[in-house]
Amino acid sequence: MNAVTSVLKSSLGSSITRQLTRTMASSFTPETYKTLLVNVPKPFVFHVELNRPDKLNAMNHTMWLEIRECFDSLAENDECRAVVLSAAGKLFTAGLDLSGMMTLGQEIAEQEDVARKSKVLRKLITTYQNSMSSLEKCPKPVIAAVHGACVGGGLNLISAADIRYATNDAWFTLKEVDIGLTADVGALQRLPRIVGSQSLVNEFAFTARKIESAEAKECGLVSKLYNDKESLISGAIELAALIASKSPVAVQGTKKSIIFSRDHTVQEGLDQVADYNSTMMQGEDFLNAAMSQATKSPPPIFSKL
Ligand SMILES: CCC/C=C/C=C/C(=O)SCCNC(=O)CCNC(=O)[C@H](O)C(C)(C)COP(=O)(O)OP(=O)(O)OC[C@H]1O[C@@H](n2cnc3c(N)ncnc32)[C@H](O)[C@@H]1OP(=O)(O)O
C-alpha cells in the first residue's frame, strides 16, 4: 500500500489546491423558465420542479420545450452533478395538456393534404420524444420524486430518469389509450426494461389502469416510498447530494455505461467502458479517490467537470 500511496501523493498537493480554487471561484444563477422552477438546494445539486400547479402541471407545448432546454443546459453545466425532478402543487402531473391539443387539432385542420398534416405531427412527436430523452442524455443522474398523480406523459417523463422515488399517496397511469393514442414518447420502450415484466407493462399500456404506489414499488417502477412530499423531496435531495459528492468523472461514466449497456450486447458494453476508463483512469479523480480510499483519509474535493 505504501508504494501506491507515495506515487499518488506526489501529484496530490497541487491538484487539491487547484480544485479548491476552482470551487471557490464559482458563482451561478439558475436559468428561469415559464413552466419550470430551478433551484440549487446544495452544492452541485439542482432541483427542477414542474411548475404549472394551477393546471395540475399539465404538459403544455412550452413545458415540453423547456424540459429539453433545461436538461440540455444542465448537461453542460459544470455546477451540476445530480438533478432532482419533482413538481409543485397537489400532484406531479396530469400528463399532456389536453386543452393545448385542441389548439393543435385546429392547426392541423388548416392543412389540407394528409402528407403535410403528417409532417407537422411527426415533427411535434419527435420534438416531444427528444424532450423526454433529454433526461437520459443528460450525463448527470436524474432522480424523479413523484407525489400525487403521475399521468400519461408524466410516466413517460419519469421513465427517462435514472432513479424514481415516490410518496405513499402517489399513483401512476399509462393513460394514452384512454385518449385514443399509442404512447409515443418513451414509456413503451423504457418501461419494460425498468419493470422487468413485459406482461405487466402490456397490462398497464392496454388498460391505462391505476398503478398504486405499493405496486409501483413492488414491480420496481419506484425504488423508495415516503410518507409525505416533504420527506420525499428531502430524501431525494440527500441522495442527489451523496451522488454529487462522488467523482463526476466516475458518476457520469457510470450513467453512460449503464444506458449504453441497456441497448447493447454485454461485449459491446464491456468495450465501451474499457474505452472510457482507459482514458479516465489516467485522470486526477481516479488518482485522488483511490488515494483517499487507500489511506482511509477524507474523500477528495473533485474538480468541476
Ligand atoms: C405527441 C404527444 C405526446 C404525449 C402524449 C401524452 C399523453 C398523455 O399524457 S395522456 C393523459 C392525458 N391526461 C389525462 O387524461 C388526465 C386528465 N385529468 C384527470 O384525469 C384529472 O384531472 C386528474 C385525475 C389528473 C386530477 O383530478 P382532480 O379531480 O384532482 O382535478 P380536476 O378537477 O379533474 O382538474 C383540475 C383542473 O385541471 C384541468 N386539467 C386536468 N388535467 C388536465 C390536462 N391533462 N390538460 C389540461 N387541463 C387539465 C381540469 O380541466 C381542471 O380545470 P378547471 O376546470 O379549469 O379547474
In DSSP terms, counting alpha (H) and pi (I) runs of 4 or more, how many helices?
Answer: 13
**Proportion of residues in extended strands:** 5-15%
What do the pLDDT scores average to?
A: 92
Task: Note the gap between the termini.
Answer: 29 Å
The first-level CATH class name of the largest domain = Alpha Beta
How many β-strand stretches?
9
Q: Pairing-aware structural class of the strands and helices? A: alpha/beta
Topology order in helix (H) and strand (E) letters: HHEEHEHHEEHEEHHEHEHHHH
Name the overall outline: globular
Percentage of residues in helical conformation: 40-55%
Biggest sheet strand order reads: 1-2-3-4-6-9
CATH topology of the largest domain: 2-enoyl-CoA Hydratase, Chain A, domain 1
Total domain units: 2
CATH architectural name of the largest domain: Alpha-Beta Complex
Quaternary form:
single chain
Q: Any idea what the CATH superfamily of the largest domain is called?
A: 2-enoyl-CoA Hydratase, Chain A, domain 1
For the report, how would you describe the main beta sheet? 6 strands, mixed
- Using the CA coordinates, give the radius of gyration: 21 Å
Describe the secondary-structure layout.
Elements: H1 2-10, H2 12-24, E1 36-42, E2 45-50, H3 61-76, E3 82-87, H4 98-110, H5 114-137, E4 142-146, E5 149-151, H6 153-159, E6 163-167, E7 171-173, H7 187-195, H8 198-207, E8 211-212, H9 213-218, E9 224-226, H10 229-244, H11 248-262, H12 266-280, H13 284-294
Parallel strand pairs: 2-3, 3-4, 4-6, 5-7, 6-9
Antiparallel strand pairs: 1-2, 7-8
Helix pairs in contact: 1-13, 3-5, 6-7, 7-8, 11-12
The structure holds ligand LH2PNOKW.
